[in-house]
Amino acid sequence: MAKPTVHDIAREAGVSLSTVDRVLNGRADVRPKNAERVKAAVERLGYVRDTHAANLAKQRRYKFVFVLPEGPNHFVETIVAAVREAGYAQASDRVDVAIMPVNAGDPHAIVARLQTLDLHSLDGVAIMVPETPQVRDAIAHIREAGIHVVAFVSDLPNSKCDHFVGIDNFSAGQTAGALLGKFLRNETGSILVVTNSMVARDSIERRYGMDEVVSRDFPRLRALPTIEFYDDPQRIRETLAHALTAHPDLKAVYSMGSGNAVMLDALRDNADVKDLVVIAHDLTAVTRQGLTDGEIDAVIAQNVGHLVRSALRVMRAKCDATVIFEAQEQIRIEIILRENLY
Amino acid sequence: MAKPTVHDIAREAGVSLSTVDRVLNGRADVRPKNAERVKAAVERLGYVRDTHAANLAKQRRYKFVFVLPEGPNHFVETIVAAVREAGYAQASDRVDVAIMPVNAGDPHAIVARLQTLDLHSLDGVAIMVPETPQVRDAIAHIREAGIHVVAFVSDLPNSKCDHFVGIDNFSAGQTAGALLGKFLRNETGSILVVTNSMVARDSIERRYGMDEVVSRDFPRLRALPTIEFYDDPQRIRETLAHALTAHPDLKAVYSMGSGNAVMLDALRDNADVKDLVVIAHDLTAVTRQGLTDGEIDAVIAQNVGHLVRSALRVMRAKCDATVIFEAQEQIRIEIILRENLY
DNA sequence: TTGTAGGCGTTATCAC
DNA sequence: GTGATAACGCCTACAA
């Protein structure tokens, strides 16, 4: 009645422990007849391996690294916090997690940092950087060393990664489009679209997604060309002021990426801007406050805790060559209002 | 450099393994002087117990039961599926999970079923039933046997549970209210509120939450008295037809509980009902289809996978007397549109 | 190709 | 009070 162990299998199959082990782990040749008997016994008794006991015996510890953009960024900060927490929580689970900050804006710097990774003592890397040919090559090199690589938050579609952990930004943009359309149900007007930089593929995909839904389902709304403000408060302020006069029918602002603080500041400065629908991405200290104060109507977010834990689970599954429960690893596109802010 | 073990502690403290164990687990009296030395060594070497090795040695298996409403119910079905999946996934983690279906409508039947639980071979129970005095007493009895009890999905505020795993239905109602208000941004009119039964405290709390937000933030909207249709398609159809004539300013339908299929059918039958905002709770086959078809504008949901895994983690933590990471166990109130439907 | 013996980090059972 | 010693379920030499 108790869970069967390798001993039970061995007895049931009339062979020794090591033979059972060999067929279970495909280590060496076993006479077909014996292999069959073992498999039959496994089947009959419903044996499932105790992975913890196995890891204990193997003295295995998983070593994972998160490669994250450095520098001040509210969203990345929430990720760093989540990684730390997860690392702490998993320490007793035989996994060590470290953070490697990189200058995400400089492809060469990224590669240089990636090359400092100790490929011998490493099991997996979760990488959150923009994809460039250099990065792609560096990743190929890491994978050749037998290390598992997951694209984290930003997909790396042209690189050979084991997995992508993050949301589909096209769908996130569609979600934004749908919210804009539903929030402006019977209204006509234009939508200001801002982001810090369209270099990030995230913003591009969100823009496409939003455009698709707005133009198809809500043609009475018009999304204006994307305004980029390269970390320049002055620029966005002026642009916003200009947009207001240029588009008296402005009904909404859609902030696709980082720079929400600047955007909100600018909105506040233009005191005549009232009753605009404001939608932003990512739950940070800034957007959280924006929701609470009623300055932001909705935030489209991904749960960073899930993001990190999913990356960890996926890397472990890859290491153990076990299957992933896709449903659990699907990162949700969340919609947050003040009322369901947690 | 490697993780210190009890052996290291013993050597460092100049005592035996057993003494270390006694100090670590407070089993028997140890001479204060030795206890101090052990504690100091633990501190110095940064020892943390390997819980998996411990569980292995203890031969511990966790036995958990989910007590769930039986009978046809789309939402419960999704939970059952999630429990099965989680049970399968955790089988190798030394946890056995079983499902006990109960006739949730009959307090005496619930108690009768609960009494069939084998309190000797059980570690924890997750209970999803309406709270009644009988249920409360039965739970007290289970807890007295040293078994951990978590209220699951529906809170049991007057019972002595270890924890509640689920969303705050008042907040869920507030979220619905906010969505209604934002979807009907500049409109005036009334909102039809339906549910299968207001006996469930979930519906009551959602109603309160919705009312609060609507009356405070969107006074131009008026939420009509709750209509209950006890699994009676005919009733809701007639009621809806009646409501339409009685309230020509009807702008939205808010379905607070189960019975979404019936509600949608009725909406379809009243073909003259067009352009109503429809908000429902819980992601099931029905609401999923409703979203896809554009019949439902938004669904307010709780992720059943998280619900189940959280309950499991909490019960384990209670068994091991370890701390819970509150942030991880917080169940989100999710807002699902067609675009972020997964 | 197969089996035996020992160890992984912890707990449990004995004697001392 | 204390300390050997043998489990727990699995893996890995090494020997046969």
Automatic annotation (TrEMBL), chains A, B:
InterPro entries: HTH_LacI, Lambda_DNA-bd_dom_sf, Peripla_BP_I, SBP_2_dom. Keywords: DNA-binding, Transcription, Transcription regulation. It comes from the Bacteria. One of its GO terms (molecular function) is DNA binding. It holds the Pfam family Peripla_BP_4. PROSITE patterns: HTH_LACI_1, HTH_LACI_2. The keyword Lyase does not apply. Residues 4-58 form the HTH lacI-type domain. This is LacI family DNA-binding transcriptional regulator.
